[in-house]
What does this fold into?
Amino acid sequence: MAKPRKVKVGAKPRARAIPFSQVAAPGLLGRLSRRIVSLQNRISLADSASEKAKMKKQLAKVREELRSAQKAA
It folds into this structure.
């Protein structure tokens, strides 16, 4: 049987910052916002601080991409 994933007490997926309409959007904007949401959720469930820091860097990069994509749109 598969082992259940260890979830810290009080760790909730935090994907509140992005409106649903944007996450459901087609194309590049939707893809980037979905990536942000999944990264946020992975950060909130990550165990080690180094893992979290790595993901936060990725998150900053993706957010920047999203900003520039929104300006272009």
The chain has one domain: 20-72.
